[in-house]
Write a structure and sequence with these properties.
The protein is mainly beta. The protein has one domain: Porin (Beta Barrel), CATH 2.40.160. The protein has 4 helices and 14 strands. Strands 1-2-3-4-5-6-7-8-9-10-11-12-13-14 form a 14-stranded antiparallel β-barrel. Strand 11 and strand 12 form a beta hairpin. The relative contact order is 0.16.
């Protein structure tokens, strides 16, 4: 959601995650991004832009995925108070895959694989999405959105054209990256002046795989912080479920702790396995840490904008 943040012109994000390190050489993921409100298109619309860098490495062969994405979005207010906002965004970037065959161990050396198979693959990747926000007079809000990733279904096979004796699709062969549909939503609903609930969900559909995650933060802000808007504490939990053909199950529970301090947001999460994988992982998934920094320099100009995004 490029440009969708409150009380600032620039947002910086850093994120780090590890997965399944307790029983295998699991996943390590790191990402950094920056986005900002660029300029007004009119008195009720703002264009925003951003860049995101991400790196992921997994397994004994150090299979890595690296991305550089450039994002553009437009936020349009549909009433004088700016309580109803529609956002549309686009992203495009470079997708890189690498693998280290020299670390492969087997009963016989695959000479052709080691000598001629490419170990580096570059391709382009495109995506787009829309989001609708509604804010009430009582500083409550809800939002719902949908996105489509890998619109161009980039080719990700290191082996190019492969023999296909069973007439499988390119997706089933692992030759292309399936398009991924994402539907998400959430909101903020106040119990009183100090405590609020921030429920959210996300549904992902990519090829034969489907996943849904549902949960909520509970937010506490003390009376002494209400005027300064300088501190808030969040505690939350989410359940992650999957659908594979005719199989449905729950495979993880996430717990999160978040702290808002002035214009910096710290979030620490950990997920616990609930599927059969817990026998190998001892129920431990992995930790994730994110830091978000909001930067402002022209409060007077920002107050004149009709598009006033909620604080997510």
């Amino acid at each position: 959601m490029t440009g969708m943040f409150q009380d600032a012109e620039v947002r910086l994000i850093a994120n780090s995650r590890m997965q399944w390190e307790t029983f295998t050489k699991g996943y390590k993921t790191a990402a950094v991004s920056a986005d900002m409100k660029l300029f007004e298109l009119n008195n009720a619309a703002i264009m925003s832009g951003g860049i995101q860098l991400a790196a992921d490495r997994a397994g004994d062969l150090n299979f890595s995925t690296n991305t550089v994405d450039f994002n553009l979005s437009v936020q349009q207010a549909f009433d004088a108070s700016g309580r109803n906002i529609f956002s549309v965004g686009f992203k495009g970037g470079l997708l890189n895959h690498r693998i280290d065959y020299s670390k492969m161990e087997g009963y016989a050396t695959e000479t052709e694989l080691l000598e001629s198979a490419p170990s580096n693959l570059n391709t382009w990747d495109l995506g787009a999405g829309v989001t609708y926000f509604h804010k009430s007079k009582h500083k409550e809000y809800f939002y719902v959105g949908a996105s489509l990733f890998h619109i161009n279904e980039p080719e990700i096979s290191f082996f190019g054209t492969m023999v296909n004796p069973e007439f499988l699709s390119d997706g089933e062969l692992g030759k292309i990256l399936y398009r991924k549909w994402v539907v998400h939503g959430g909101g903020k609903f106040k119990f009183n002046n100090n405590i609020s609930a921030l429920p959210s969900f996300i549904f992902l559909d990519q090829g034969p795989h489907k996943e849904i995650k549902v949960g909520s933060f509970i937010k506490y802000r003390g009376s002494s912080s209400m005027k300064k808007n300088d501190f808030a504490l969040y505690i939350g939990g989410w359940i992650r479920s999957y659908i594979e053909k005719d199989i449905f199950g729950t495979d993880a529970i996430d717990v999160s702790l978040r702290i808002d301090q002035n214009k910096t947001i710290y979030t620490f999460s950990f997920d616990f396995n609930t599927s059969k994988l817990r026998r190998a992982s001892n129920g431990l998934g992995g930790p994730e840490l994110s830091v978000i920094k909001l930067i402002e320099w022209n409060k007077l100009r920002r107050k004149q904008w009709k598009v006033k995004c909620p604080a997510l």
